[in-house]
């Protein structure tokens, strides 16, 4: 058998070993070493070959127990195979990562579904409890009304069963009088106000898992409640920056001395329909919720004055129904262009003026009302378009047959009771100030416009009010502010953004605004109407207002106070 001179080992014949290149360190090919591994004993080596091996492979001599196979370099796979292996490893890693991501997504979806289901269950439980307590309150008030009616008629009062204890978690306004206290002869004034009850029993905070739509509704109402304060704060913040003075000073001079767009009848033609149709106002009306009801159709060829009752604290119903398009005014009264009127003082607040004009509000002054009902701004604009230097006939006037302005389809909304009526806003009541308000009736007679009574059920239930006694310092202060500025400051409280007991946010109480049939003056009057004509017109208006109340009070005012306090009362 031949012997390798380089390694000193017996190897098989050359034909049994494929031709492979020898290792440059050992001189033995990988195939030869695999067929017969060498041993490290000296019996298979010769003295003459040992120095050569040591000279050629010093590392093997230092570790005689190592085999040639372990010392031989393994051949690397081709580049294509390496690419395939790396791509397979990457795919495996990517597959594992995607599996982990899918598993994580599935867990998150499961947790989200569980959370939504839990929130839905809690919300359904809350709604069920709220409706149950509302029905109990309505039944209790109905029994109180029956008992009061029997007392008035002289019949013996039936025994009133005691009602279940009212939980302190009940939302919105508190119960005015409980039946157990009524049977014991306690007075309604003995009932603790909601604010005192909140201080003694603790403030009820809103849960964290409130659905997103309700949070957005709260934000919309918060914006409207604080819009005037926000505009005023932005103005003072800008005034503190000297760089804004070149713009603010001319702006202030303009709005205090020259601005007249709020009183010239131009509001319906300059307002922003985009602002009036914002999604913000749909969320605003869904907060209460707020609905507009029509009892009679209005002829678009005539003009109207919507007399809104009651004023409430802020007049949320007037804003939601007669300023925005969220409740569908233009669909219920097609062809009628309506404008809500407010005090001149609101147009003297910087930035708030532009906001009100964009929403289409105007001044409640006599000049503004007449300009709106007559369409004077539109006539003026058409007259300016008609005058042309190329037409000498238009230099000193205009021809009558050109640009005829339609005489109908215009309406204004006046909150008749004003600031005085806001002091009478109590939950479950309808106390109106009408007899001293004759200006809108005179205006209707002069302009031959129809007066439309409007009753907003639930407007007085949005806030609780602390009413100071007659002659007290608080009452005198309120009346002094009203006399000086045209508005007053009611001592109100309701709920907050994150609680149900303390704050300036209105309660979530349903507001139903019912629009009655129009009342037209019997005799047109070109000049100033007489006192007899105004008194007769006012009598007809009050009768129509009472008729509207009697028709809808059992539908939209079921939770009103028992007895005369829960009926419509005209105090002034």
UniProtKB/TrEMBL annotation:
<dbReference type="Pfam" id="PF03982">
    <property type="entry name" value="DAGAT"/>
</dbReference>
<comment type="similarity">
    <text>Belongs to the diacylglycerol acyltransferase family.</text>
</comment>
<keyword id="KW-0812">Transmembrane</keyword>
<feature type="compositionally biased region" description="Basic and acidic residues">
    <location>
        <begin position="79"/>
        <end position="95"/>
    </location>
</feature>
<dbReference type="GO" id="GO:0004144">
    <property type="term" value="F:diacylglycerol O-acyltransferase activity"/>
</dbReference>
<dbReference type="GO" id="GO:0019432">
    <property type="term" value="P:triglyceride biosynthetic process"/>
</dbReference>
<feature type="compositionally biased region" description="Low complexity">
    <location>
        <begin position="55"/>
        <end position="74"/>
    </location>
</feature>
<keyword id="KW-0444">Lipid biosynthesis</keyword>
<keyword id="KW-1133">Transmembrane helix</keyword>
<keyword id="KW-0319">Glycerol metabolism</keyword>
<dbReference type="GO" id="GO:0006071">
    <property type="term" value="P:glycerol metabolic process"/>
</dbReference>
<dbReference type="InterPro" id="IPR007130">
    <property type="entry name" value="DAGAT"/>
</dbReference>
<protein>
    <recommendedName>
        <fullName>diacylglycerol O-acyltransferase</fullName>
        <ecNumber>2.3.1.20</ecNumber>
    </recommendedName>
</protein>
<feature type="compositionally biased region" description="Basic and acidic residues">
    <location>
        <begin position="167"/>
        <end position="192"/>
    </location>
</feature>
<feature type="compositionally biased region" description="Low complexity">
    <location>
        <begin position="151"/>
        <end position="166"/>
    </location>
</feature>
<feature type="compositionally biased region" description="Basic and acidic residues">
    <location>
        <begin position="114"/>
        <end position="150"/>
    </location>
</feature>
<keyword id="KW-0472">Membrane</keyword>
<keyword id="KW-0443">Lipid metabolism</keyword>
<keyword id="KW-0808">Transferase</keyword>
<keyword id="KW-0012">Acyltransferase</keyword>
<comment type="pathway">
    <text>Glycerolipid metabolism; triacylglycerol biosynthesis.</text>
</comment>
<feature type="region of interest" description="Disordered">
    <location>
        <begin position="1"/>
        <end position="192"/>
    </location>
</feature>
<comment type="pathway">
    <text>Lipid metabolism.</text>
</comment>
<keyword id="KW-0256">Endoplasmic reticulum</keyword>
<feature type="compositionally biased region" description="Polar residues">
    <location>
        <begin position="37"/>
        <end position="48"/>
    </location>
</feature>
<dbReference type="GO" id="GO:0005789">
    <property type="term" value="C:endoplasmic reticulum membrane"/>
</dbReference>
């Amino acid at each position: 058998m031949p012997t390798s001179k380089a390694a000193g080992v017996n190897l098989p014949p050359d034909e049994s070993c494929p031709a492979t290149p020898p290792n440059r360190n050992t001189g033995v090919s990988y195939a030869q070493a695999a067929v017969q591994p060498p041993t490290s004993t000296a019996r298979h080596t010769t003295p003459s070959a040992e120095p050569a091996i040591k000279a050629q492979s010093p590392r093997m001599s230092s570790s005689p127990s190592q085999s040639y196979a372990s010392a031989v370099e393994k051949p690397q796979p081709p580049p294509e195979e390496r690419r395939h292996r790396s791509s397979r490893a990457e795919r495996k890693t990517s597959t594992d990562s995607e599996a982990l991501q899918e598993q994580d997504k599935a867990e998150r979806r499961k947790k989200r579904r569980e959370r939504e289901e839990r929130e839905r269950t809690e919300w359904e439980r809350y709604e069920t409890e709220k409706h149950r307590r509302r029905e109990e309150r309505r039944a209790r008030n109905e029994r109180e009304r029956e008992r009061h009616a029997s007392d008035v008629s002289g019949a013996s009062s039936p025994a009133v069963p005691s009602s279940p204890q009212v939980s302190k978690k009940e939302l919105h306004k508190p119960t005015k009088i409980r039946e157990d206290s009524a049977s014991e002869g306690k007075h309604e004034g003995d009932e603790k106000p909601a604010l005192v009850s909140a201080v003694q029993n603790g403030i009820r905070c809103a849960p964290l898992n409130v659905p997103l739509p309700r949070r957005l509704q709260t934000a919309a109402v918060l914006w409207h409640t604080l819009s005037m304060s926000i505009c005023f704060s932005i103005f003072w913040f800008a005034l503190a920056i000297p760089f804004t003075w070149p713009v603010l000073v001319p702006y202030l001079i303009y709005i205090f001395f020259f601005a007249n767009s709020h009183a010239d009848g131009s509001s319906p033609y300059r307002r922003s329909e985009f602002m009036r149709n914002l999604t913000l106002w749909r969320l605003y009306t869904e907060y209460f919720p707020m609905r507009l009801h029509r009892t009679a159709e209005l002829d678009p060829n005539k003009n109207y004055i919507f007399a809104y009752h009651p004023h409430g604290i802020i007049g949320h119903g007037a804003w939601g129904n007669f300023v925005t398009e969220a409740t569908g005014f233009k669909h219920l009264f097609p062809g009628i262009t309506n404008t809500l009127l407010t005090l001149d003082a609101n147009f003297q607040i910087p930035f708030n003026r532009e906001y009100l004009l964009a929403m289409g509000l105007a001044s409640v002054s006599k000049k503004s009302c007449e300009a709106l009902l007559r369409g004077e701004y539109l006539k003026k604009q058409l007259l300016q378009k008609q005058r042309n230097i190329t037409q000498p006939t238009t230099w000193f006037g205009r021809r009558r047959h050109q640009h005829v302005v339609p005489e109908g389809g215009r309406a204004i909304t006046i909150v008749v009771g004003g600031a005085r009526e806001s002091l009478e806003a109590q939950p479950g009541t309808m106390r109106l100030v009408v007899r001293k308000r004759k200006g809108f009736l005179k205006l209707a007679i002069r302009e031959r416009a129809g007066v439309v009574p409007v009753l907003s059920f639930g407007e007085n239930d949005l806030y609780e009010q602390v009413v100071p006694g007659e002659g007290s310092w608080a009452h005198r202060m309120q009346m002094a502010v009203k006399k000086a500025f045209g508005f007053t400051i009611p001592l109100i409280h309701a709920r907050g953004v994150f609680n149900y007991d303390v704050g300036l946010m209105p309660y979530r109480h349903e507001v139903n605004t019912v629009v009655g049939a129009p009342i037209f003056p019997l005799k047109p009057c070109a000049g100033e109407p007489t006192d007899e004509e105004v008194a007769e017109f006012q009598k007809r208006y009050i009768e129509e207002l009472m008729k509207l109340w009697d028709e809808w009070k059992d539908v939209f005012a079921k939770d009103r106070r028992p007895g005369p306090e829960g009926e419509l009362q005209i105090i002034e």
